[in-house]
Amino acid sequence: PVQFAEPVVSSIVPSATAPSGGARVTLFGSNFGQGNGLKTVQIGNSICMQTIWTADSSVICRTPAGSYESLSSSLPMVMSVASLVESPFNRMQFGYLAPIIA
Question: Would the pLDDT of 2 be above 90?
Fold first, then answer.
């Protein structure tokens, strides 16, 4: 049988954004597959609004809105391709920046 390697995320740029959602975050790594089909990026318990495949080694995620509980905390960012999910030991952390009130 044919076996494929699980996706591995090695960096996220930027690693934190405003909680309003819709920011473009690029994931870099390996084994992201070919084309846009069957790819999901999840931040904490929320799925990215849009996932755009750019190469086997990079994917762009449009972030979902962050919740009050997610502000100033680190959330796991998980990449999956079809049924292959990134190992829990390799998961990068992402954060939502708390608003600054002046």
Answer: no
